[in-house]
Amino acid sequence: MQIGPDDLLLIIDVQNDFCPGGALAVSEGNAVVPVINRISRHFGHIALTQDWHPPGHRSFASSHPGSAPFESMAMPYGQQTLWPDHCVQGTAGAALHPELSTERAELLIRKGFRPEIDSYSAFTENDRATPTGLAGYLRERGLKRIYLAGLATDYCVYYSAVDARRLGFDAVVIESGCRAIDLSGSLSAAWAGMQEAGVQRIGDLD
Ligand code: VGL
Ligand code: ZN
User: In terms of pTM, does the model score above 0.90?
Assistant: First the structure.
């Protein structure tokens, strides 16, 4: 697949807390860093996302006495998985991985900063209604196809890719540049959902 001037690489949540040793570590999460650094050289446009929660965020199990991480809880906007405290604004865990090349990135989108709503997608928060502004940015810039890589395949990459399709963009997930949390079948459900939404899946770029 030839990368063109209307294409953008969207690098999702490559942050210390999602890497080994972090608060919500994804297995081999750090392995995406060299892959993304290599792939990003092909792109004329790059954007990054950063999970960015205030302390006491409603998606944290610690905000709900008696609840444990990875349980599911009903929120006003639907079922929400409860997570260990992670990516708290300004902490080392919330920082982007130090070896990720970010020099050529044109945009950094922060998400999950509203205390009451989680945000997996780079486009829309988990209420499926509150926009982050990314769709408007892409449209104004004339960017039509987004390639996705980062963490985690079955949460933020998945929701972002499906939202991209819903909002009228072409979406391609680069598998070698992603790693998954895989909570009770979430990875296979995510691939099925992406296929259903018309998201393309490629092994690698080069
Ligand atoms: C993510 C769970 C909670 C992700 C973020 O980046 O996939 N997952 N917050
Ligand atoms: Zn989060």
Answer: yes
